[in-house]
Design a protein that fits this description.
5-stranded antiparallel sheet, single chain, Aspartate Aminotransferase, domain 2, 14 helices, 7-stranded mixed sheet, binds pyridoxal-5'-phosphate, alpha/beta
Length: 441
């Protein structure tokens, strides 16, 4: 293993952050194994991708069957798996989303969504939200402000992108209503001082900010953005790359809000691990694109599409179980918060749960050391958990939807043990909880 790591470092570019140095050999369900037979429960789902657990047998079988028939069509031939997938997407995506394009990564799909908004409105401006993560291609870094490191040395960044506040009530030390008011006030100032609404093609927003810290958009905030979009002919683009495909225990986060996007961007869990992403809109919007306005050689690869169609079939009956898991996880984390002073906040939607770790509850001071400790403790106890947030102090708890209740409990028990060990180490006292935490499913 040590030799493989040395060879990796000798020949693979260094900029990609790896959460562990574990060399995965094979995987099944929640379990990832190394070549020596050691195993870990991956409660990171390969960064919110393997929502059905790794190597789901039905998804793999569908991909293999397609691979045996036709691996590539490359815009020369038409094929059935892309149609099968698009028809299913039309059924499960929010009302009004009717036709779909395909790409390979989330960032590509974001770019396609924004291009479609620009093309169909014939406007250039984009309003994005501070703390968002939309990918790392040259276009998408212009919308990504979860961390300045993603933009370092890439200036000039794409023009006509205006970044405004996304409500972060816990970080700002405010109620949800106060944070919503503040963020809406900044948005109003954008239109007053920086750009006219009729120059804006799109609002690009994650309904739950992911990498930025697992912040669900307050209902009133998202509704206000929808209303502004309607008032000014602006496309509302939901980036559901991370929130989609069961992650919030619904198909899409949009369903929780009852708010319809004009353009929907998808990726990550769509094919449970095969590279695929998608974007959809109404026929009225997307049919404005003439042939050649956008495209890619590999997007909508037949094998990835066959896998994704199967993901939808397999996931559908699992969504009620995901809601049960979510309820249980929030109850457990609320309980942990009552006993562990290191937990400052528990928030999220469905199975997209952020547990924010602080060194001082009164000042909400981020404690990335606690996160590092919990991640290492997890590795030593067969559990993988990863972080999010600009300070790296938030547990990004994203179990597979296929996890059993016992597996969920066991994972949270490990986190509980890690918190106890950490608090003993830093001399914090575990205290009785004083504030209730409300889950938001
Ligand atoms: C909300 C969101 N949008 C876009 C992306 C970019 O996806 P990719 O890394 O596949 O380009 C991500 C990746 O984490 C994401 O979470």
């Amino acid at each position: 293993m040590g030799d493989l790591l040395r060879r990796h470092e000798g020949s693979v570019a260094p900029m990609l952050a790896f959460d562990t140095d574990i060399h995965a050999d094979h995987a099944e369900g929640p379990w990832v194994y190394d070549a020596d037979g050691n195993r870990w429960a991956d409660f990171a789902c390969g960064t919110a991708v393997a929502n059905l657990g790794h190597n789901h047998p039905e998804v793999i079988a569908a991909a293999k069957a397609q691979l045996d028939r036709l691996a590539h069509a490359g815009c020369v031939f038409r094929y059935d798996s892309i149609v099968e997938l698009a028809e299913r997407l039309r059924r499960i995506t929010p009302g009004g989303i009717e036709k779909f394009g395909f790409a390979n990564s989330g960032a590509e799909a974001v770019e396609a969504g924004v291009k479609l908004a620009r093309y169909s409105t014939n406007r250039q401006g984009v309003i994005a939200f501070r703390g968002a993560f939309h990918g790392r291609t040259m276009g998408s870094v212009a919308y990504t402000t979860s961390n300045a490191k993603y933009r370092e040395n890439y200036h000039p960044i794409l023009g006509s992108v205006f970044v405004t506040a996304f409500p972060h009530p816990y970080r700002w030390g405010m109620t949800e209503d106060e944070a919503t008011d503040l963020a809406l006030d900044e948005l109003a100032k954008k239109f007053k001082h920086e750009v006219m609404p009729h120059n804006i093609a799109a609002f690009l927003i994650e309904p739950v900010q992911g990498e930025g810290g697992y912040y669900p958009a307050p209902q009133r905030f998202l509704q206000a953005v929808r209303d502004l979009a309607d008032d000014h002919g602006i496309m509302l683009v939901f980036d559901e790359v991370q929130t989609g495909f069961g992650r919030t225990a619904n198909w899409f986060a949009a369903e929780h809000y009852g708010i319809r996007p004009d353009i929907l961007v998808m990726g990550k869990g769509i094919a449970n691990g095969l590279p695929l992403s998608s974007y959809g809109a109404s026929a009225e919007v997307i049919d404005q694109w003439p042939v050649g306005a956008h495209g890619t050689t590999f997007g909508g690869n037949p094998v990835a599409c066959a896998a994704a169609a199967k993901v939808i079939d397999v996931m559908e009956p699992l969504l009620p179980h995901a809601r049960d898991l979510s309820k249980r996880a929030f109850e457990r984390f609320d309980g942990l918060k009552a006993r562990h002073e290191t937990i400052g906040d528990v928030r999220g939607l469905g199975l997209m749960i952020g547990v924010e770790l602080v060194s001082d509850r009164a000042t909400r001071t981020p404690d990335p050391g606690a996160m590092d400790f919990i991640a290492s403790y997890g590795v030593a106890h067969e559990l993988i958990v990863i972080s999010c947030g600009p300070d790296g102090n938030i547990i990004r708890f994203i179990p597979p939807l296929t996890a059993t209740m016992d597996e969920l409990d066991a994972a949270i028990d490990v986190i509980d043990g890690a918190l106890t060990a950490y608090e003993e180490k830093v001399g914090n006292e575990s205290v009785g909880g004083d504030r209730p935490v409300t889950s938001q499913l």
